[in-house]
């Protein structure tokens, strides 16, 4: 892994050309993904096939020669392992048949058995066996808060009203659930590392649901706890941790903490301003607006180069989008962006 530009950046070393990978780099915008996806009615069944996951993780690497690969799985495997009954069907987001709907549901929760996620760890091993030697693999989990939000809401949602009511009615039980999820995330990531991942990203994709003070109480507190557990364990202590917070109500400087290697910036953040504050302390990943990818090649090129120019003197810059690639994007547009980075 000595020659990995991505790992160099996470260690705050400079690269003449920034490393690049994308959130949701494998997925529905790729025809080769659709080709495999059509064989499964429930997306989760596909995630339970380690060899298929490895093949899917390699698709964007083969197509674009990216600088990092990400495990092909989903953040919702943990709630599924708590027997909340996850499925994903055609044209729908995730659905839980047995969501958390009362305080008692939390007290009655099955204990977490990391071995129930053995299919994910096998997928890590399979993916590592196919990847070029110097290409790192990113493992991941959802933040405890984001996992709790889906587990209570029972599905994806615009406003997560059920979750917000639960928070108001049962704050102590919610905190208990977040504790349980933090420990589960730790065991899950530790096992991913034992199976071969080289870096970890924590997705707090529903950070934007929380007010400034609730963000600390229900999300950041537990993400920090998870990171502390990782940094205190000999298996995971040297694995760089990247944190993605979607549109948080707090300033980025108020989200970072000791033990973090890198902040993955949402597209609404001002990368230039933030770079002055984080320089020499944290790597930065980001943060082109994914919607730029529906625009003209010229605009994609200039907006990509703008970010690269701003960050050219920043040791520890990793090019990424400010959130995931959406299913409507044409793969050729992604190529334009990569060419602009490497030009
Ligand atoms: O029908 C299909 O083909 C399923 C689409 C799909 C894919 C390709 C889902 C369902 N998950 C994934 C893969 C996935 N999910 C990866 C690995 C691939 C890669 O990045 O290249 C990762 C890292 C995730 C993580 C994930 N899942 C997040 C965090 C990232 C983010 O976008 O904020 C979240 C929020 C999910 C939930 C999820 N999974 C799938 C869907 C449709 C959703 C979102 C539902 C909603 O809007 O609430």
Descriptive notes:
It is built from 14 helices and nine strands. The chain is an alpha/beta fold. It has one domain (5-342): Alpha-Beta Barrel (TIM Barrel). The strands form two sheets. A seven-stranded parallel β-sheet has the order 1-4-5-6-7-8-9. Strands 2-3 form a two-stranded antiparallel ribbon. Helix 4 (50-64) packs parallel to helix 7, helix 7 runs parallel beside helix 10 (171-195) and helix 10 runs parallel beside helix 11. The two termini are 24 Å apart. The structure holds coproporphyrinogen I. Residues 23-28, 37, 43, 70, 72, 74-76, 88, 93-94, 140, 156, 203, 205, 324 line the site of coproporphyrinogen I.
Main attributes of the structure:
single chain, 343 residues, alpha/beta, TIM Barrel, 14 helices, binds coproporphyrinogen I
Quick overview:
This protein is of the alpha/beta class and 343 residues long.
Summed up, the helix count is: 14
Low-confidence parts: none
Q: Tell me the number of structural domains.
A: 1
The helicity comes to 40-55%
Say how many strands there are.
9
What is the CA-atom radius of gyration, in angstroms?
A: 19 Å
Largest sheet: 7 strands, parallel
CATH architecture name: Alpha-Beta Barrel
Gap from first CA to last CA: 24 Å
Strand order of the largest sheet: 1-4-5-6-7-8-9
What overall geometry do the principal axes of the alpha carbons give?
A: globular
| CATH domain class | Alpha Beta
* CATH overall fold name: TIM Barrel
Average pLDDT taken over every residue: 97
What binds here, in terms of ligands, is: coproporphyrinogen I
